[in-house]
Sequence to fold (906 residues):
Amino acid sequence: MIHYRHFSYQYPETARPVLNDLSLDLPEGDFVLVVGPSGAGKSTFLRTLNGLAPHFYGGRVAGSLLVAGRDPVRESPRGMADVVGMVFQDPESGFVVDVVEDELAFALENWALPQDTMRKRVEEALDQLRIAHLRHRPVSSLSGGEKQRVAIAAALTLHPQILVLDEPTSQLDPQAAEEVLLALRQLNEDLGITIVLSEHRLERVVQYADWVLYWPGDGARPLLDRPPAVLRHIPLTPPLITLGKALGWEPLPLTIKQGRRFARELKPRLHPRPEPTRELNGARAAVQVEGLWHRYKNGVEALRGVNLQVRPGEFVALMGRNGSGKSTLLKHLVGLLKPNRGRVLALGHDAARTPTEALARDIAYVPQNPDRLLFAETVLDELAFSRRAHALPPNEDADRALLARLGIEHLAHRHPRDLSVGERQRLALAAVLVTDPAVILLDEPTRGLDYVQKRGLAQWLRELRDAGKTIIMATHDVELAAAAADRVALMSEGEVVVDGPARRVMAESLVFASQVNKLFRDPRFLTPEDVLAGLKAEDARRG
Amino acid sequence: MWIQQDFHPYAWALWLAQAATAALVTRNPFYLAVLIVAGLFLFATLSKRRRRLGDDHAAAARPATWAPILKLAFFLMLFSILFNALTVHYGDRILFHLPESWPLIGGPITLEALIYGLVMGMGFFALLLVFSVFNSAVGPQTLLRMAPNFMHQAGVALTIAVSFIPQTLIAYQEIREAQRLRGHVVRGLRDFQPLFVSLLAIGLDRAIQLAESMDARGFGGNLAALDARGRRRLGLATLAGLSGLLVGLLLRAMQGPGDAVGLGLMAGGAIALLLVFREQGRRLQRTRYRRWLWRPRDTALAAALTPGLVALLGLALLAPNLLFYYPYPPYALTPDFNPIIALLFALPLLPALLLPGKATAMD
Fold:
């Protein structure tokens, strides 16, 4: 189906090829999962499948590539459109027209198919993705999962044999991601469409994959094999598999169901380490939210009487579906939004009456898209900019020290836009941390991060908390919350539904439970580290 | 598929021609009032219908977006009355005097000036109303889809541009928020620089993503190749057409509007360009997904509007004095009123009467 023979591709004006002497065969009709660290060349690889690389980006190509009997390098993406359907990370920026049905017809009109055929194809695609009820809706009014399904349907109308998806669920909450992945699996199983999909959060998708293609990055050769065989060898693994590898479980479990058997055997041997009790200093709340209501101009009631008290030194994870009010709440804490009713006391200031510019000095906020925060020419300038804006004296040594603590000091003179997603995330953090704020607010900090980067972030946040900072983080990344937060507040429809210690809340929840927690159903075990520490304690007792 | 369609877009286009002509040919306040009442009634009918069809439809929200614009036009009309009355101190019927020492507005305030302001405001309001109704009925996307083939590429570009505006506004807001979070207070023009740089970068990113998506879906692959001779012929024709237009314009500007040579050159240039467009359009192979129904009520609408339009144009060209109105002396202050002519200005109401009372999903 897909055959690479000594295929190399090099972007223009770069020193090294991204794909180097690649020889690879992807089987027909299978579900291929593409994984690897950020910046390893996954996206480039996917874009060679329909010729976007090199046709769109330029650069040099060597060797041969055949996709469904055609050569994308010769045919160009337009010529490949009826063989390879392409779906991108952010569906919204790929939409051309405003109504769902017209979006689906766009490729067909370009392909000059007769009207009857078009209507048949559009109806089929609407049914296959179960979006017939959305057909007259403007795309801008859809939820994230719906948008992505529309994008997939739009790619399907030309009846491609191969569907290529570049991190299609990275912007979705777990439920919406599930929606999209189930639809893909169905396309794969019922219609035999070959699916090539890249994804960071393996726990979502690894059970559907027939093959895993691992890109180690740094010019090393990719590895293609059955999922357990690949996962055994790579560092980027979800908690369940990390635990399975550490304990030598065979065969390596990919799903909770497969893992339960091992967990049952292990459980009697587990003795959890005692939780270190943390003294929270000061009785006064760092952030106090009292009966907060907020209604957007379009009439959506985003917050409906939220009460929340966060003490200094606490690490709170705000969880809940997309649209449950997490971001709205965070924005109130720095005064970006004003409440309709109720009030927010942030470090003793009424957030609605203090200008955000002043409040932001003590309450740092990293928005969902950290790129929005960055606008200087170099990484160091970015920090200097923050100092200037807050009328602080320039202090390059301190800035460098901060960058070093975040592990990005070597990038000090690079342009922020040239950094990888993970590096930009850390730079955005650094840019708001220069003022040494007491409270740090993070909105969805793990978007686009791989497991290694996520582990780094979790550790970093814990260090900040141990240094006495108060952290409030909105996320639907269950594993990050399990690994880092002390307390979880679950939001739904603009209200805080559950609020309590992370262990208790997550153990009681079905959706917002970590993998390890689902495995043991015990509030004392949320992460692989908890389990391994429990084992060590047991071994020490015996020894 | 024709869920949003109350009339065929071509029928609506005819409506636009008739109604806009009506708004442009006269300043007679009685006729304009008839037109405005008819337009407002139709606008209300359409809005109500859309609301009944449900909020889910793209078209449902459209009248709502035009309502504030109409409100603004109404205030502009009031302003026009006030401004004209206060600043033009000409006319026989003096209502009252403002002290002469007051700059600009001091002096006699006349009924004539007041009415002239009203008439100008009404003309403006009527025209805007006509376009609001048309836009909420047909929508820019449908218009673009109706566009002839040679305009297809330009049409797609325009569609994208239209959707970019709200996206850019959102990005602008996000950046402003982000900058406030970093303590950046915008004091002078120079402080806007990081904002524009970010906006530009975001716009570029988005453009690249969109272009990739369009390329991957076969956009632009449907233009038939042209041989060297064909290319040369098209190039020459374009050049000739453009120079004809330009020279004709220059001649007319120098010799005055009566210049026949200039007029001839312009017409020739225009024809040459149209031929080029037609040729280009023929090379583009594409089909249309949307079909529109032409129903009996479309025929009825067209049958009534076409003679209406012809009558209005005939009146404007052959008997302009029947539509003429000017309040200042020496003309009569009271406008004429001819019920038959007034009927022509009531014609734009017709769609509201032709629509079935109960809206169903298949209308």
